[in-house]
Structure formats: C-alpha cells, structure tokens
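This section describes the prediction task in plain terms. A model, or a person checking by hand, is given the sequence of a single protein chain and must write out its three-dimensional structure as a string of tokens. No templates, partner chains or ligands are provided. The sample shown here is typical of the held-out split.
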Amino acid sequence: MIGAGHHEAQGAFRALADPTRRDILLMLSREDMTIGEVVERFDITRAAVKKHLTILEEGALISVHASGRERINRLEPLGLKTATDWLNYFNQFWDERLQALQIAVEKEEKEKAKKK
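The expected answer:
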C-alpha cells in the first residue's frame, strides 16, 4: 500500500520538483562532486547550490561525506526508489484503462467487420 512510504516520498518529490535539483542529480549520477564542482556548472550562487544540495539530502536523494576538508555529494539511488515505488502504484490504473480501451477498439472493429 502507498501509505507506508508516503512521508518518505514527500521529501523526494519536494527535491525532484525543481529543475536545478534534477540537473544536479543527473550530474551526480555520473560522478560524485564537491559543492565547488557543482557550483562551477551553474550560473547561481554557492549559497543557492548549497540550499539545493541540502534539500536533495533531506529528500534522501543524495548523501554527503567528508573527505578531508571537502564535502563530497553522492547520488543515493534508493532515495529515488521511494518516489518510483510510489508512482508505480498508479501503473495499475493505466493498465486497467489501456486494457478497457483495447477491448472497446476490438469490439468496434468486430462490429464494423460484421456490417461489411
């Protein structure tokens, strides 16, 4: 049931709502990066990048690890799984509707064939 993961998914969806954060996730899917490395790729302030990274971390989509004086940001694929699982719950509704559409189309085709 979707209720159990609802609260975990809420943080992930909040994090995914922003296009800059989605871009950051794409970059982190290719390699772990420091805040400075992320800042270099965007035309926004370091403070803005830090805020985006914090929201991604709160949504459990990234983790931050200390390496000397640097903080390394790493994608956490399991955090994305929470959001994916929540969305996948609704696939059954699409499957049911598509099956109903297929049945209706086939029925209409049979009726047309009888009239010929």
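For orientation: Residues 6-89 form a domain with the Arc Repressor Mutant, subunit A fold (CATH 1.10.10.10).
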